[in-house]
Amino acid sequence: MRRKLVVANRKMNGSVPGNKEFLEGLIKGTRDCHNADYIVCVPHPYLYQAQAMLADTEIAWGGQNMSRHDAGPYTGSVSPGMLVEFGCKYVIIGHSERRNRGQDSDNSVGERFQAATKAGLTPIFCMGETLEEYEKGLTDLVTIRQLNAVIQQVGIKNLAKCILAYEPVWAIGTGKAATPDHAQSILHFLRGYVILKDVEVGENIRILYGGSMNASNAAQLMSMPDIDGGLIGGASLVTEEFVRICRAANELGSA
Ligand code: PGA
Questions:
Q1: Is 123 near ligand 1, meaning CB less than 6 Å away?
Q2: Over the stretch 26-44, which tens digit does the pLDDT of each residue have?
Q3: Structure pTM?
Q4: How far is the CA of 122 from the centre of ligand 1 (A)?
């Protein structure tokens, strides 16, 4: 049985006092919610704060990107080991906001995936098609291309070390979430693809939906059979809204 999972992708948002208020609210709001998992991915300067505030809770924290290198002359980059030093267990890899600005390619996402797992981090590996690709009916081809690039580099067994996230670019930050049926059909397709390669990996891997998930649509989306949770951007900036999403996951989960 796959546990439900809610991940906050806070993107380039927050402040020390604002994070404090958010994390305090989240800790309080999920104190009785033991049937799902919760992760908060913050900008790197706030990792120390996340670690200090979340260390004794069931809420995990992570980074939003990292270098594939361990150390060296990479100005402005952060290594996997640095994330680990600040207690991260997770890191977002291949988010479309990086892919579509040319900062990540299918290939470099695979390299980051390997570097993350080598350091003991669980990648939250994002895939998804642009609006243009969606309108051309290319969703399946694009997501499989993105997925295969990683499988080819790491092998199907190692795919089990990640969390997959399907995030259609046209749904991110637009307020136009995919319908539960549409998201379910893509996630079912992706899971089926993995199952064809390895039944155990495909059945156990957690796949999230992301893209304008909010407190009003979360329960419906997450109750679909292949949707194991959500990757939440905008709605993770409003404490009460994010807590409601976490609580919805908890209600759908089992102890
Ligand atoms: P959104 O972002 O929830 O604001 O659409 C999701 C994401 O980019 O991870």
A1: no
A2: 999 999 999 999 999 999 9
A3: 0.97
A4: 19
